[in-house]
Amino acid sequence: MSRVAKKRKLDKTRQDRLYFDSYSDVTIHEEMIADHVRTNTYRTAILRNSESIRGKVVLDVGAGTGVLSVFCAQAGARRVFAVEACSIAEQAVRIVRHNNLQDRIEVIRGTVETVDLPESVDVIVSEWMGYALLHESMLNSVLYARDKWLKPGGLILPSRAELYITPVSDPVVEDRLHFWYTVKDQYGVDMSCMSDFARRCIMNSDITVNSVSVEDVLSHPARFAELDLYSVTAEELRSVKGQFRCESFGSAAVNALCVYFTVTFPCPDKPQPLVLSTSPFKPETHWKQAVLYLDAPVDVVQDTVVSGEVSMYPSEDSARHICIHVDYTIGEQKRQSKTFSIPDWSSEAQP
């Protein structure tokens, strides 16, 4: 989104309405369910935890079309509360009935913070992750549900999330910047003076959601944060931060940093847990990666150190939108700082 709009802080009720309205159309649900990595990993995780689900009560937070609720019923859940705030809940009811599961899955329209469940639950399942993990802030609702409805010793799927960062080189950006130097040869007009303007436009402060090619990753990724869903608090989510240190593979120009996440599902019958990864080194998901463009590219050679600190926190304009602040040093260069955010569609919406 590149349109310019006057920013204004939205009240929480309006933020929530805009957020839930965005899930009322079929397109976003088609995209999520068609994401085989996402949907099949959840299905596999639920079925592998069938011993903990069979005969138990499950809460699906932000159920959407109810596909995870159906998986839980297929795994033997006695009862599933599918809580969904937006109008897609009407379709979830139809899907539940179409699969003859209405005696075990109850679709409840509303936010998990306002609905009243008839009993506590043994399991919470939710696909709460947004771009760069925390964009949309749905995790707060999962934590609310955990604290209010989950029985002691209950199961949370997924149970852990981790955030990673790595320097990258985006050749498309370099090609776009170099383009202005080619205009004279093509048309006889020297437009090389456009280069600085183009750099400011392209290498801006937006969090760009894009697929990063493995060939463009310049180091082993560094983990900078971990969230344990059994213990993390909503207050801690107001500032998720950590240090990172990477060493470049070889000679290249670093023009961006790439942030991605993983979530982990416990699997009691397997030696290793099940991991859903949005890494550039893994099959692509609809989350892709979050790309943070630096103000200017920096040349690195083998083993050049890229280090710093990442801080993620809610935007002042809209609490559901994430900001990422990075303090970083590349090689012998002086420390730099830059703050990024996802373009805020809500600031353009009319009251």
Q: Could you give a quick summary of the protein structure above?
A:
It is found in: Nucleus. It is an enzyme of class 2 (transferase). By secondary structure, this protein is of the alpha/beta class.
C-alpha end-to-end distance: 20 Å
Number of strands: 15
Overall mean pLDDT score?
Answer: 90
Q: What general outline do the C-alpha atoms trace?
A: elongated
Helix content: 25-40%
What structural class do helix, strand and pairing data support? alpha/beta
- Give the uncertain stretches in residue-range form: 1-10, 346-351
Q: Encode the helix/strand succession as letters.
A: HHHHEHEHEEHEEHHEEEEEEEEE
Total number of helices: 9
Q: What is the beta-strand fraction?
A: 25-35%
Radius of gyration: 22 Å
The description of the largest β-sheet is: 6 strands, antiparallel
Domain Methyltransferase: 58-154
Main location: nucleus
EC number: 2.1.1.319
Keywords: Chromatin regulator, DNA damage, DNA repair, Methylation, Methyltransferase, Nucleus, Repressor, S-adenosyl-L-methionine, Transcription, Transcription regulation, Transferase
